Amino acid sequence: MAELILVRHGQANSHATDEAGYDQLSDLGADQARWLGEHIAATNPHFDRVLTGTLQRQVDTAHHMGVTVTAQDPRLNELSYFALAQAAFDAHAIPVPTDPSEFATHLPRVITLWTTGDLPGVPESFDDFAARITEVLTEQCADAGRTLLVTSGGVIGMALRHVLDLDNTAMARVMLQINNASMHRLSYVHDTLMVAGFNAIPHLDRPDRAHARTFV
């Protein structure tokens, strides 16, 4: 049996206007990661492998969690949302969102255009993004034990699409619900990968941490 625990990075710089500006944890994001690490240390701290992507916010989340990273794998990096948004604006005059409420309607539209190949010039096709996530999951399921993967919301959404056979609209809706520093458990049993837990944030259940339950 293999168990995969996917963790979304802590809150990043939500005021950024490009990928580089976004790729750093906020002070709250560092706290979210630290609290998650404390929860894991107090409950079930053993992992056979710990992987992150190569993005700074993913690496820093693992650092603040207090886990020892086995390897960095660029296949766990997030989709290039700023590039997708710019392509949607250039090709279809879809305005780039300026607040979270606009993002909630923007993401499904952009994902739909991406899946149909209607976003010219983007750095990665939808099919290539899907393939790299599926490849990582398949590799990790080949080895028994527990693997922690510190990654991003789009990667987790794609993983759930793969496991649950979601359509692309449903995948976009799932992505919108993924909390910062949340845990998602996949179990590989009898040659089948199944969802065992979604969007868990037990480290933020305390009333004095209600402010830390963030999506962006």
UniProtKB/TrEMBL annotation:
Entries under InterPro entries matching the protein: His_Pase_superF_clade-1, His_PPase_superfam, Mito_Ser/Thr_phosphatase
Organism name: Roseovarius atlanticus
The protein's name: Phosphoglycerate mutase
Keywords: Hydrolase
CDD domains: HP_PGM_like (cd07067)
Binding residues annotated for substrate, in chain numbering: 57
Keyword Cell inner membrane listed: no
Cited Gene3D superfamilies: Phosphoglycerate mutase-like (3.40.50.1240)
SUPFAM superfamilies registered for this protein in UniProt: Phosphoglycerate mutase-like
Recorded GO MF terms: hydrolase activity
Superkingdom assignment: Bacteria
